Amino acid sequence: MANGEPAKRGKGRPADNGVGRDMLLETAKRLIKDLPPARVTVSLIAREAGVDPALVRYYFGDRSNLLMAVAESMLADSTRAELDPREPLAAMEQVIRRTAHFTSSTKHIHRLMVDELAAAKSTALGEHLGELNRGAVEELGQLMAGDGETGVRPVNPAFLHLALLGLFDFFASAEPVVRQLVPPGTDMKQLASEYEDFVVDLLLGGLRKQPAAE
């Protein structure tokens, strides 16, 4: 302008300093990996990204929608590999391992899913979370339904889904308890890898169909 004053912004997108939706989402994911979800506020995300909180609200509406986007993105990161229904045992192992990776991606995934999303006031948000979980259960059911006489025996897919979440969530969220069970100085990343292998062996042993008795 002629007088050197900056032009006034309208009611559109707030000043973004080159920061878009994807960068805000990645910032939120980085924070949620280490902090309890209750501490990951719109203000903190904006401060870490170097933008006005209004930009976060512009893209996501409110904090609950942002946290749902974080959960969806983390789930997508862990499910990129396609499952081969022709190899049910191998596909089931993929599901088990990606559940391990999903739960270990944040120490507070249980709080994110239960305290922040399932308990959200928005009915639509709760239903959306339900859709994500039902999708995982349906996938397990399809793996078992499409199997023949060898491979994976049928079990309740909802129970299996819950068992997977519980087996891996406690290991990730209760690290102080886990440390009490192992020698001082134990490499926790290596221990997590060994625990994942243990769970895979345990579950596949129970899910593997046994040869029919002659």
Write the layout of secondary structure elements.
Layout: H1 21-32, H2 42-49, H3 53-60, H4 63-78, H5 88-104, H6 109-118, H7 123-145, H8 157-173, H9 175-180, H10 188-207
Helix pairs in contact: 1-2, 1-4, 2-3, 4-5, 4-6, 5-8, 5-10, 7-8
Structure write-up:
This protein is mainly alpha-helical. It has helices at 21-32, 42-49, 53-60, 63-78, 88-104, 109-118, 123-145, 157-173, 175-180, 188-207. The chain contains ten helices and no strands. Helix 2 packs across helix 3 (53-60) and helix 4 (63-78) packs antiparallel against helix 5 (88-104). The chain folds into two domains: 21-61, Arc Repressor Mutant, subunit A; 70-207, Tetracycline Repressor, domain 2 (Orthogonal Bundle). Helices cover 64% and strands 0% of the residues.
Short description:
The chain is mostly helical.
Average pLDDT value? Answer: 82
* Name given to the CATH homologous superfamily of the largest domain: Tetracycline Repressor, domain 2
Number of E strands: 0
The percentage helix is 55-70%
The number of helices is 10
Q: Mind telling me the CATH class of the largest domain?
A: Mainly Alpha
Low-pLDDT parts are 1-10
